């Protein structure tokens, strides 16, 4: 890091991160931003983030300046008057923050809406900006002519794009024709102090109804691209080889009712456990006490993908083997096949075979879990990720 000293060196550049999703709001991108920014100098890195009911309480727990803005937007396009007003008002608010706090550089949390706000701010006052992409955001934008136009304006003005995976980098280059030299990659990380392997906890397993069962676990929002339905459809075939298998689902979302109906229709309702939203401690215990973690992600429509899959890192940090879909950037979270497996999850049959084979081999499961823990400690510990991110930011 550079600092101002008596020999008149250039003062440190001040950077403002602009993101709708930021703690206490739950989300993978918000966790990524917090884990990085919290490890960088607060006098150099400021945040303009979306507001939430408990935001003020969270902001009292750290020393970084966080300016809360009304950033919730339904339609990310420009055609609706409410959306157009949102973009213009937010750009004006960000411009005032930039002037008041002498900001030199703007980091935008996604291509839309944050990136387009960065584009407008750049037009207003010339402050350079870069924008993050988590894969699904630029993927979904390709399905709309309006959002494609907006994203291309963002790309043309941005200093660089920051991809959360090498798969997202390929999307920039292959799908958008974006210059490869303008794309940086910062993969997410994991808290290897919080997520750790522990011995079997029979009391917890009894409280959860897991005693005597082989437990598959998925953590994440109940969305189509996560593939919960593919796991449910695969369960009957898995039960043939692994009687008593239980599929535990942590999370809430729009697909909740559909998934419950599907479990009943497939005759596996007694083998599916919908746990809803859990506390952080309870969720961590689920990681630690399950037998195998599965994220059966697949591509939905035009570009709706799983950009990376931080939950796969959290499971491996807890010493659990993982299985993920052959879509998006999830393969980058593991060392295939040593710590996890990748399988096409567009249909249940291939997934059922992989799950059944692994659950039937507890010795291999344990070995994969040990290798997974070592893998994430080496590659994805948050302090290492933050150090790599700081190098990227300074080089923009």
Describe the structure.
- The protein is α/β, with parallel strands linked by helices and 396 residues long.
- It folds into two domains: 15-189 and 381-395, Rossmann fold (3-Layer(aba) Sandwich); 202-379, Glycogen Phosphorylase B (Rossmann fold, 3-Layer(aba) Sandwich), CATH 3.40.50.
- It contains 15 helices and 13 strands.
- It has a seven-stranded parallel β-sheet, with helices on both faces. It has a six-stranded parallel β-sheet with strand order 10-9-8-11-12-13, with helices on both faces.
- Helix 4 (111-125) links the parallel strand 4 and strand 5 (129-133).
Provide a short characterization of the protein structure:
By secondary structure, this protein is α/β, with parallel strands linked by helices. The chain folds into two domains: 15-189 and 381-395, Rossmann fold (3-Layer(aba) Sandwich), CATH 3.40.50.2000; 202-379, Glycogen Phosphorylase B (Rossmann fold).
Write the layout of secondary structure elements.
Blueprint: E1 15-19, H1 28-37, E2 45-50, H2 55-59, E3 66-69, H3 81-100, E4 105-108, H4 111-125, E5 129-133, H5 136-141, H6 145-157, E6 160-163, H7 166-176, E7 183-185, H8 202-208, E8 215-219, H9 228-241, E9 246-250, H10 256-265, E10 272-276, H11 280-289, E11 292-295, H12 310-317, E12 322-325, E13 340-343, H13 348-359, H14 362-379, H15 382-395
Parallel strand pairs: 1-2, 1-4, 2-3, 4-5, 5-6, 6-7, 8-9, 8-11, 9-10, 11-12, 12-13
Helix pairs in contact: 3-4, 4-6, 9-13
